[in-house]
Amino acid sequence: MKVRHLLRLYEQGNRDFSGVDLCGADLRGVTLIGVNLTGANLRGADLARAFLIKSDLSGAQMNWANLSYVKMSDAKLVEAELTKANLSGAFMVKSKLPGAKLSGADLSGANLRRANLWGANLCGAQLERINLRDANLSGANLKWANLSEARLIGARLYGSSLNFANLSRAWLKGLDLSGADLEGVNFKEARLSGANLEGANLITANFSEAQLDRVNLNSADLTGANLTKASLEEANLTWAVLKKTDLTGANLRGTMLYGVDFKEERLTSTIRLEPADCSFFSTAV
């Protein structure tokens, strides 16, 4: 279908364009509010700054499409194909993307507050400065994703995969990541105050200069983790595994360390601990 024909039909009140073929079409800045584009072919299409508010693009093919600064709040993109699409700066508040394929996509600076990304594939996606406050990311694949400076306060991440993701300088205050597999995740300078990381796999994670005040790390595995200059005031490290963990310059004032092994052979650097700074200190194996 030609773009001008589609727009003419839209002006006449037609809203059903399901299955339409607009591969590579120039749709920059178009207004298509509340339309049905389910199963549409929009591969490589240019939809920059388009208005697709409350539209249904479920199952649509949008590989390599340009959706930069698109307005898609309340839109449906259930199981949509968005691999390597450009969604930088997109406004997608409360959009529904369960099962969407977004691997390698660029969502830097996008606003997906309260969006539903349940089971979405965001492997290797560029998510710098993205707003994911109160979003549902349960079961999402975020391996190797770049979430630097992302806002995730209030987000749900139950069952999500975050191995080797970059969360440097991200806002993660109060998040529940208990039991999560976070091996190799970069939390450098991240804000995690009050978060729950009980029983989490944090092997080789980087927490250098991170804010971990009042964080629950009970029974977490921090083998080989980097906690240099991290703030752990009143954090709970009870029974945590700190084998080869680097705590050089870390603030451990009021930290609970009961059951933690600080034998010399389990450290990579000297840790200075003052009795006044740590409660329930123990060197149990």
List keywords for this structure.
little secondary structure, 2 strands, single chain, 3% helix, two-stranded parallel sheet, 285 residues
Summarize the structure.
By secondary structure, this protein is largely without helices or strands.
Number of helices: 1
Strand order of the largest sheet: 1-2
> Strand pairing plus helix content: what structural class?
little secondary structure
Low-confidence stretches: 264-285
Strand content: under 5%
Choose one word for the global shape: elongated
Structure description:
The chain contains 1 helix and 2 strands. By secondary structure, it is mostly loops. Mean pLDDT is 92; it is low at 264-285. The chain has one helix at residues 3-11; strands at 255-256, 278-279. The protein has a two-stranded parallel ribbon with strand order 1-2.
Please outline the helices and strands:
Elements: H1 3-11, E1 255-256, E2 278-279
